[in-house]
Amino acid sequence: MAQSTGKEPSRIQKRNRLLILDAALEVFSAHGFRGATLDMISAQAGLSKPNLLYYFDSKEDIHVTLLSQLMETWLDPLVELHPDGDPIEEILSYVQRKLDMARDLPRESRLFAGEILQGAPRMLPHLQADLKPLFDAKCAVIQDWIDAGRLAPLDPAHLIFSIWATTQHYADFGAQVAVLLTPEDPHARASAHLRSLFLHQLAPTLGKN
């Protein structure tokens, strides 16, 4: 990072750094890493390009900072899936948390999706070190519920993939959703639909038919 004096940043420095990161989030989520430029980010932030480079060394430095900050937020809904809870309600609550995140953090969702679509060149170490162990642990929790007859016999990994696909769609394909459902806010209907969809798939009696 360009700013490395070792001193506590001033209020203005903290404000400018937040301005740059918010502007970069807007630009990256709209144009992707390759399509974004430092000129676009500085214009969005209302700061000069030299001023931007005082805080960050490069476009990649800004992008990595955003992704690193996002990772913990991105993992939190899965972290909250608790093995001691009711299996169906735990999973339905996870679905709702992911859907809420798509509504509340659409730019972050698109930033993450764009990085993955490029092969995760800057995010791969985080995926390996942070997401993979958590994903494996939660798949094991779901499998334990299935083995105990408390859930239908679904594939835990692909269940989680399905949740990601059906919830993040509302952020990553938000422009399409807006056209197809204008002028409606899709969140309430999406919430009811996904709860019904997954409830019927998760009910253990279905797995015995």
Quick description:
The protein has 209 residues and is mainly alpha-helical.
Defining key terms:
mainly alpha; 0% strand; 2 domains; 209 residues; elongated; Arc Repressor Mutant, subunit A; Tetracycline Repressor, domain 2
Uncertain ranges:
none
CATH hierarchy class name of the largest domain: Mainly Alpha
Oligomeric form: single chain
CATH topology of the largest domain: Tetracycline Repressor, domain 2
Kindly, what is the distance between the CA atoms of the first and last residues, rounded to a whole number of angstroms? 59 Å
When the domains are counted, the total is 2
Structural class: mainly alpha
CATH superfamily of the largest domain: Tetracycline Repressor, domain 2
Bin the helical content: over 70%
Tally of alpha and pi helices: 10
What integer is the average pLDDT? 93
What does this structure look like?
- The chain has 209 residues and is an all-alpha fold.
- The protein has two domains: 11-57, Orthogonal Bundle (Arc Repressor Mutant, subunit A); 64-208, Tetracycline Repressor, domain 2 (Orthogonal Bundle).
- It contains ten helices and no strands.
- The chain has helices at residues 11-35, 38-45, 49-55, 59-79, 87-104, 106-117, 124-147, 156-172, 174-181, 187-202.
- Helix 5 packs parallel to helix 8 and helix 6 packs across helix 8 (156-172).
- The termini are far apart.
Describe the secondary-structure layout.
Blueprint: H1 11-35, H2 38-45, H3 49-55, H4 59-79, H5 87-104, H6 106-117, H7 124-147, H8 156-172, H9 174-181, H10 187-202
